[in-house]
Design brief:
- The structure is a single chain.
- The chain is of the alpha+beta class.
- The chain folds into 2 domains: 3-55 and 295-441, no CATH class; 61-267, no CATH class.
- Helix content is 51%, strand content 19%.
């Protein structure tokens, strides 16, 4: 029997039993849609979490916390920096030292305390540091400030009304009103002198303001100074990094040869893992966002597998309807099967016809289920955040996605659906090949 004749035979049977076949297709479509929608929650949340993580951190950045030497960790030195810069695939190596007290910054009657760092500006620029205003420092007394530094540079007053009750930030009318670029600010550092505090003022010129962080909730109010200013602070306090609470005179030589923060930036994402592996082999204590991505993806892979397994149960339940439909089809078409066998039809051909019919039901059900799943996914992403915000009066994170349906999920769902439906039709198809010709002709099964 030709393929064309087999499909004609299948279509005739479907037309003869439209209602029963459509109900079976509907059950299959519901099972497939349930599987896709359920698993899409795992895919959607994974995309949101991964996207949020990538936006918060530089994906090509590797943080280095120290070098393990004889079971102990030491700070990195210039020799380490030179080695790190020589590694294949490394774009830049930034290094910073933090002033170990919080200096006071003054501009006219406005004051603000801010964390202060000495940094190597050329490597920062090479790593991707960008300004929203001004330029990078070129002289020893030139500095750049974080994008939120001005928000904390306020009138020195004890009035609590300067703070906004909702945000806790200083009200705009108390903040320094002009641009900071080109302004001279005075940095005041302290010194411990036998229970008394001495102060030293250094005049600095603000030449640039850093670009705002990628996330709205992140704040950058830091001040970035040159190495010479850092050395001046150490000379005044007599302590490493200007640290308070320790006896002056503990200043070691070449303190700027070690670094508090070192970050390696790869040329692209593909280079990160190779660089990280090499650093770990050479006893560097590191952290990379790639490691976090691996852990997140592993957790979501397990979750998605579980959701797909639960969704598969719905398709298995739908397969019971397919089995019932195909069994009844074999019973009703017993005379037709008898005639085909009488004229010499191969049992394999008869079995193939019923397997094709169950596959036909599965494919149509999978197509309808996929379309319905996409519609439900859109409604979930639009409606669910609104419902949650109305019910719990809590604003969800921006960009949170509850459902996502990648092509791979569709292929998995359709594959499972087709496999289960074919499996459901195998037993009735085998039974069709075992029908006795004489009994079939007499309609006695």
């Amino acid at each position: 029997m030709k393929w064309k004749d087999q499909f004609r035979f299948i279509r005739q049977n479907i037309k003869k039993n439209k209602v029963r076949t459509m109900m079976t297709i509907l059950a299959t479509a519901m099972g497939c849609a349930f599987l896709i929608v359920l698993a899409s929650v795992g895919y959607g949340l994974q995309e949101s979490v991964v996207k949020d993580t990538l936006e918060q951190q530089v994906v090509t950045e590797i943080d280095i916390y120290g070098f393990e030497e004889e079971g102990e960790y030491r700070s990195l030195t210039m020799d380490d920096i030179d080695y790190l810069e020589s590694i294949d695939g490394v774009k830049a190596v930034t290094r910073r030292n933090q002033v170990r007290q919080i200096p006071m910054y003054m501009l006219e009657e406005y004051k603000a305390e801010a964390m202060t760092y000495v940094t190597h500006f050329p490597s920062e620029v090479e790593a991707g540091l960008k300004l929203q205003d001004g330029r990078m420092p070129e002289k020893e007394n030139e500095v750049i400030v974080g994008s939120h530094f001005r928000n904390y540079l306020s009138v020195n007053t004890d009035d609590e009304n300067i703070y906004d009750e909702e945000t806790g930030e200083v009200k705009e009318e108390y903040i320094y009103p002009d641009d900071l670029v080109g302004k001279t600010i005075n940095m005041e550092v302290r010194q411990d002198l036998e229970g008394e505090n001495g102060t030293h003022t250094i005049s600095l010129t603000v030449v640039g303001v850093l670009q705002e962080p990628s996330r709205e909730w992140m704040q950058d109010q830091n001040v970035y100074i040159s190495e010479s200013v850092y050395n001046e602070i150490e000379e005044f306090t007599g302590t490493p990094g200007g640290e308070l609470g320790i006896d002056p005179g503990n200043l070691e030589t070449d303190t700027t040869d070690t670094f508090d923060e070192v970050h390696v930036y790869a040329k692209n994402l593909e280079k990160v893992q190779g660089i990280a592996d090499k650093l770990e082999e050479n006893n560097y204590a590191i952290y990379s966002v790639v490691n976090e991505m691996e852990q997140i993806n592993m957790l979501f892979t397990i979750a998605k597998a579980g959701l797909i397994l639960v969704g598969t149960i719905a398709i298995v339940i739908a397969s019971i309807g397919i089995y019932n439909t195909m069994t009844m089809a074999v019973t009703e078409r017993a005379p037709d099967i008898g005639i085909m066998k009488a004229i010499g039809a191969n049992p394999k051909t008869i079995k193939q016809i019923f397997v094709l019919e169950s596959s036909y039901i599965g494919i149509i059900g999978a197509i309808i289920g996929t379309i319905v799943a996409y519609l439900i996914s859109v409604l979930v992403n639009i409606g669910l955040p609104f419902i949650i915000e109305m019910a719990f009066e809590d604003e969800l994170p921006e960009g949170l996605q509850f459902s996502a349906i990648p092509p791979s999920l569709v292929f998995i769902a359709v594959g499972i659906c087709l496999f289960v439906t074919i499996l459901s039709g195998m037993r009735p198809a085998k039974r069709a090949t075992q029908i006795d010709v004489l009994k079939a002709m007499r309609r006695e099964i």
